[in-house]
Design brief:
Number of strands: 2
Distance between the termini: 38 Å
Number of helices: 15
Largest sheet: 2 strands, antiparallel
Radius of gyration: 20 Å
Structural class: mainly alpha
Strand order of the largest sheet: 1-2
Length: 362
């Protein structure tokens, strides 16, 4: 909004020329989202606590200490993240960008689904919200719509192809099936972050780390000069998503202020489904779907641990892990929560560096 309102003054006032630079607006979006989170966080948390009798329902089959340490903590903190992310993106992004609107639509749509899920949990006082089938159906429908939308915004030569990292010209042509692939990427990322969100600060920091990587990727593939130099597949218009990703980092930092152990609020499905979907949508828009699997490898491992656990238990009646997702396994082994969280953060940083290396190693 600000670039549209004030960008035209750049010729008369040199200060407004900064609005023409994606890097400046990305930084401004990050700081705006951080400010909004810190400024409105206490009020939003009080509002959430006002109608959540006893806070988020805690699973009785989970780690025993959760029933004591996390009881009474309000959930749905994703409302704070989405509020700061949405406002700062609308303020600093070029609203003529279809990609920004597509990614925002997916993010807010998944956020609404998560809100409905959390609402049912806190009002019915149990851990069952929206049914699994309904949740997947809504995710698939919205994901398919946004994937088709993104394909329509890209040049036909690249719209339905998936790039392979570490190879300069390697691409997989999916043709008319690509929207389905894009849908699966968004759904997978959304549910993977959701499964990871089980300890204070565990999910939000890896999400911010991945967002930082995709801030850079979006900027590079959207800039023809840098894309050619690094032998990346250029995606016209994708650079504007750097503003969105940067805003996500700021919103995440503000949320972490309140989510740091001991958490004053949990993000809930409102946040985890939305943030995972946002990363998936940005990956599809920038043609770096495989890189997301590398950068977000922590989310992948958490998801795979659940799949292995369920599969093996149904076949043998025995468990591979003491509890799934994987972070609960380490809790059961006696690891302290800060130890698990910080070590998982370290793994997320390492995977992010590996993901960044794909930009140059070709």
């Amino acid at each position: 909004m600000i670039p549209l309102l004030l960008g035209r003054l750049a010729d008369d006032f040199i200060l407004f020329n900064l609005l023409r630079y994606t890097t400046f607006r990305a930084g401004a979006a990050c700081m705006t989202a951080l400010f909004l989170s810190l400024a409105f966080g206490p009020a939003i948390i009080r509002w959430l606590a006002s109608f959540q009798r006893g806070g988020q329902p805690i699973r009785t089959d989970g780690p025993e200490r959760h029933l004591i340490e996390k009881k009474g903590t309000p959930t749905m903190g994703g409302v704070l993240i989405l509020f700061a992310l949405g406002i700062s993106t609308l303020l600093w992004a070029d609203l003529r960008s279809g990609m920004v609107w597509a990614v925002l639509t997916l993010t807010m749509g998944y956020g609404l689904l998560g809100f409905a899920d959390d609402w049912l949990k806190v009002t019915k006082r149990n851990t069952k919200g929206v049914s699994g089938k309904m949740k997947l159906l809504v995710q698939a429908g919205l994901g398919l719509i946004v994937a088709i939308w993104l394909v329509s915004l890209m040049p036909g030569s690249i719209a339905t192809k998936m790039t392979i990292p570490f190879f300069k010209d390697a691409m997989i042509p999916f043709g008319l099936l690509f929207p389905l692939v894009g849908m699966l990427v968004m759904m997978g990322a959304s549910n993977a972050v959701n499964l990871t969100d089980g300890l204070d600060g565990l999910a939000i920091v890896p999400v911010m780390i991945a967002s930082g990587v995709f801030t850079l990727i979006a900027y590079l593939v959207g800039n023809r000069i840098f894309a050619d130099y690094l032998q990346l597949l250029g995606v016209p218009g994708a650079g504007e998503l750097a503003v969105f990703c940067s805003a996500l980092i700021g919103a995440g930092l503000g949320f972490l202020w309140f989510n740091a152990p001991p958490a004053a609020v949990f993000m809930g499905d409102t946040g985890s489904l939305a943030l995972g979907g946002a990363l998936g949508a940005v990956a599809v828009a920038t043609k770096h779907e495989v890189v997301l699997a590398i950068v977000g490898g922590l989310f992948v491992v958490e998801t795979v641990s659940v799949i292995i656990q369920v599969f093996w238990y149904k076949r043998t009646g025995k468990r591979v892990f003491l509890m799934a997702p994987l972070h609960h396994h380490f809790e059961k082994k006696g690891w302290r929560e800060p130890t698990i969280v910080i070590r998982f953060w370290i793994i997320a940083v390492i995977l992010a560096l590996i993901g960044l290396s794909t930009l140059k190693i070709r």
